[in-house]
Amino acid sequence: MPCSERIWKRTGDERENITMALQFTTSYLEDTVSLFRYHKNLAEQAMAQVSDQQLLAVLDPETNSIAIIVKHLTGNMRSRWSGFPDADGEKPDRDRDSEFLNPSATRAELMDSWEEAWSIVFAALASLSDADLGRTTTIRGEPHSVMQAITRQLAHYAYHCGQIVLLAKHFQGDQWKSLTIPRGQSAKFNQRVKAGEASQR
After folding, report:
1. Is the model's pTM score more than 0.85?
2. Range of the domain at 107
C-alpha cells in the first residue's frame, strides 16, 4: 500500500505502537493520502485514550474542547470536499460559527460524524489523478490549483489533529501512551527505521 500503516500489538498488559515502513512514491496524491491517514490516525489514537468527559473538557474559556475541534473539522471537511474540485469549497449551507458551539454529546455520535466526514475526503481524493493537480478550484470564490487546495486542507487538518493530541496528552498526564517515538527511545527507533520495521511517519 502507498502509505505507512499504524497497527497495535498487545504485549502483556500493554499495547505496542508499530508503524510499518514507508513506501517510496513520487505521486503527490499517494503521499498526500498517506499523510491525511496518518494525522487522522494520530487524532483517533489520542481520543481513544481520554474519557468521554475529557472529550468535552476545556482548559479555559478561550480554548476549544476535543469535541469542538472535531465538530469544526467535520464541518470543514463536508464543505471543502463535497463536489471537489468542481464545486466551491465553502458551501452556502455551511454555518462555520456554529461548529464552535454545542458539540456531540456522546463519543459514538462524535466518532460517527468524524468517520462520515473523512469518508468524503478520501472519496474525493480517490476520484483524482495527478493530472488533475493543475486544474482550478475555488474556496470562497478564490482560485486555487487543485494541488494548492489539497495542501491547504492537509495543513489545516494537521494543525487541528495536533491540538487534539496535545489536549489528550495533557488530560492523561503520566498515563499517556506515546503515539510517536517515546522519550529516550530515538536510537532504538532509528534502528527499526533502517531495518524497514518502522517509518518516520
Report:
1. yes
2. 27-177
